[in-house]
């Protein structure tokens, strides 16, 4: 069990986490990667072509807003706020992260199926509302010092946030894949990944500043950022290609007759 009174437990946790990445790397190395075939006369396209796609750049900025206002704060600020402001124990904070993982494991696929054929930006807007609601639940929970409701309210906030994360995974990655030309897919994903990493730099920095000014204020401010992101998603929808506005439906594979043909 990781506890602040025993700093060595954090070292063990970090080492175990490093081992998981090493195991993951072994699996990645075994994945076959086909070599792209490009005509000799074709110009090799680069990041200039990616940044020339204004719709995608707007989507990357939208992703940055969501990461700054929601995703980056779960691991960075929430544990500090829960322990110092809401005065819940480290064991309870650990249970919240377990709840977050379990909700995603159990509900990710059902939520992906529920978004099939539906408008992506509408789901994105709902995600922004859920993120905002989760922070407000956590803000209210942190103000209930000394009351048993604090643990329940913080748990409700983490549950709501987990639902929003499931919607995020159901929308953002597939949309980037649909917007990217085949020969630029890796670069499109890379730019989106950069917006993610930049959000993890900006979000905790801004959040920590607000947390230092007024611990409870950080959550309403970030809720506003999430609502703004959801509203901008609906505006951006009009600029998306028509065939990228909805999540695709699953298509059943055509039956294949594997019976051998009769001999002549």
Per-chain topology:
Blueprint lengths: L7 H22 L17 H5 L2 H23 L1 H7 L5 H25 L5 H24 L5 H31 L5 H29 L4 H20 L27
Helix pairs in contact: 3-7, 3-8, 3-9, 5-7, 6-7, 6-9
Summarize the structure in short.
The protein is mainly α.
Q: What is the CATH architecture term?
A: Up-down Bundle
| Main pleated-sheet profile | none
What are the segments in which pLDDT stays under 50 over at least 5 consecutive residues?
A: none
Total DSSP helices: 9
The share of residues in extended strands comes to: under 5%
Work out the count of structural domains: 1
> What Rg is obtained from the alpha carbons, in whole angstroms?
22 Å
The CATH class assignment is Mainly Alpha
Specify the overall morphology. globular
What do you see in this structure?
This protein has 264 residues and is mainly α. The chain has a single domain, classed as Up-down Bundle (Growth Hormone, Chain: A), CATH 1.20.1250.20. It has helices spanning 8-29, 47-51, 54-76, 78-84, 90-114, 120-143, 149-179, 185-213, 218-237. The model has no long low-confidence stretch (mean pLDDT 88).
């Amino acid at each position: 069990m990781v506890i602040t009174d025993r700093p060595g437990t954090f070292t063990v946790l970090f080492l175990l986490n490093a081992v998981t990445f090493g195991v993951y790397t072994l699996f990645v190395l075994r994945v076959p990667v086909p070599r792209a075939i490009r005509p000799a006369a074709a110009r090799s396209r680069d990041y200039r072509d990616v940044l020339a796609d204004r719709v995608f750049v707007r989507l990357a900025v939208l992703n940055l807003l969501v990461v700054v206002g929601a995703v980056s704060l779960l691991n960075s600020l929430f544990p500090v706020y829960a322990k110092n402001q809401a005065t819940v124990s480290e064991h309870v904070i650990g249970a919240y992260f377990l709840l977050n993982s379990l909700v995603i494991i159990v509900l990710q696929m059902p939520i992906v199926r529920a978004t099939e054929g539906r408008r992506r930006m509408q789901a994105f807007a709902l995600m922004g509302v859920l993120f905002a609601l989760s922070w407000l639940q956590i803000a209210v929970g942190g103000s209930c010092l000394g009351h048993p409701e604090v643990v329940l309210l913080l748990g409700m906030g983490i549950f709501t946030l987990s639902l929003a994360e499931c919607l995020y995974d159901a929308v953002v990655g597939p949309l980037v894949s649909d917007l990217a030309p085949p020969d630029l897919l890796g670069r499109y994903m890379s730019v989106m990944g950069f917006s993610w990493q930049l959000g993890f730099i900006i979000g905790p920095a801004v959040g920590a500043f607000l947390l230092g000014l007024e611990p409870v204020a950080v959550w309403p401010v970030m809720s506003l950022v999430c609502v703004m992101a959801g509203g901008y998603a609906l505006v951006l929808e009009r600029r998306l290609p028509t065939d990228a506005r909805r999540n695709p439906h699953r298509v059943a594979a055509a039956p294949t007759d594997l019976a051998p043909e009769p001999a002549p």
